[in-house]
Amino acid sequence: MAVADRTRKLLWGRSANRCAICKRELAVDATSRDQEALIGEECHIASPTRGGPRHDPSLPASEIDAYHNLILLCRVDHRVVDEQPRTYNADALRGIKAAHERWVSNSLCGIPQAERPRLRCRRKTVPDYLVRFTTGTELLNLIVGCDGFVFDHDEVSTEQEGILVGEFLQSARDYGDCGEDLEPSQRVQASMELSRSLEELERAGFFVFGGREVRVLEGGVGGPADFVIAIVHVVRKTSDTIIKFGFRDEVGQPQTLDKHGDS
Q: For the whole model, what pTM was predicted?
């Protein structure tokens, strides 16, 4: 599976567009004749290929393209670390990455507060009502393509409930992270898996509600940009707060649910 868009954004954002080793900027300005040049490479700390640099057979396939197994380097340093894997072993690269991210954070401390990246709410984009999801396709359409997530759930009363709710939210997060990279057949499978999870939650006494909010990312490099957040709440059918979520009917009029989930 390819590196998810969200993972890629985190890697470039936390590295501040700089090589973790030489600190060189990884986007070169355009010239009068040519467009910008990107010299940054998203490098695996543990190679996914058997016999590759720092390959770790114990690392699950699902973690190969995860954030903790990636480091942002320029092309020169990428070549160096892969040709000198004993010098630049996995622990060394993780340490270099952590030190670089600390350097970025400390450097930003000198930037005036008004210029630091921040999220600003747009009142008009805050959903008045959250939609109740009954199919995995509906939920997948919500979470794929979002830049961030807000997950919440009612208090669980048993270990089994905790596992059920936790696994569901983790699956939703995972598919939100990699959904844009799924092949059509994988997207169908993801929808089916989420549908089964929604059915299990309903049998256990839970409903799932969600919506989208668009905030504004300001400060840093570039002008303001939209930052889309997916909201997913797991709520007990018997909760008195369920009436706050509600949904819109077929003609777009707001409705509410009583505490048994009937409109």
A: 0.55
Q: Which tokens belong to 42? A: 């998203």
| Per-domain boundaries in the chain | 5-110, 118-255
Yes or no: say if 21 and 96 are a contact pair by the CB < 8 Å rule. Answer: yes
Cα(180)–Cα(227) distance, integer angstroms = 16
Read off φ and ψ for residue 69, nearest 5 degrees. -105, 15
Write the CA distances from 82 to 15, 56, 122, 158, integer angstroms: 20, 14, 45, 48
Distance CA 226, CA 212 (A): 12
State the angle between helix axes of 184-203 and 159-178 in degrees (0 to 180), rounded to the nearest 10.
160
Tell me the mean pLDDT per 10 residues along the chain, length 263. Answer: 80 90 86 85 92 89 88 93 91 90 79 62 80 93 86 89 90 82 86 95 94 79 76 88 49 34 36
Q: What whole-number distance in Å separates Cα of residue 86 and Cα of residue 68?
A: 19
